[in-house]
Write a structure and sequence with these properties.
Rossmann fold, 9-stranded mixed β-sheet, two-stranded antiparallel sheet
Length: 201
Amino acid sequence: MITIGLSMRGQWLPERKEYRDCLDRRWASFMQDVVPECQWLLLPSLGETTLQYALDMGINGLVFTGGDDVGTDKARDVSEQVLFAEAVKQAWPVLGICRGMQVLNLMAGGTLCKLENHAGSCHQVHTDDEVFTVNSYHTNGIDRAGLAADYSTLATSDSGVFIEAFRGLNILGLMWHPEHEPLQSAITKKWIRELFLGEKA
């Protein structure tokens, strides 16, 4: 059975002097809806020791969730870096959502670009076969020139300039937040189930 570890965003509470790892509660219903066959648990951002924690918990799949920009939380950045390296070594499936997709691109040698007036909007994305509407919460994007060589494009923005989804060996990146959508698009669900369960339509 696949046991999926989900990374979390960091949140500083100055009144309590606490730095917390946290995750949107909608991830629970999302995981149950899309991959009910899989176990999953949350991974704290412990820096390099996150890897040993994940191994002790029997993790053999990953979701890099959304959150603050890369570079704003060193502990999370390092945690996802060591997890990604192990995932490549062990051929674990890895899903990257929004920031998580950006991390996957950077770790594979790609680059990011700044976006203006994009966060907080909804827009269409285009695949080879269909067009559908997604949410948007990111201020960094990936254009065609910045896409890592190991990845192939699955979906683009209306303009065709920006990459909204990509695929690599055991890798799937989505720039939108599917956990925010009560009804998943068929293609989003299909891609994720293919990644973690090997299902083909």
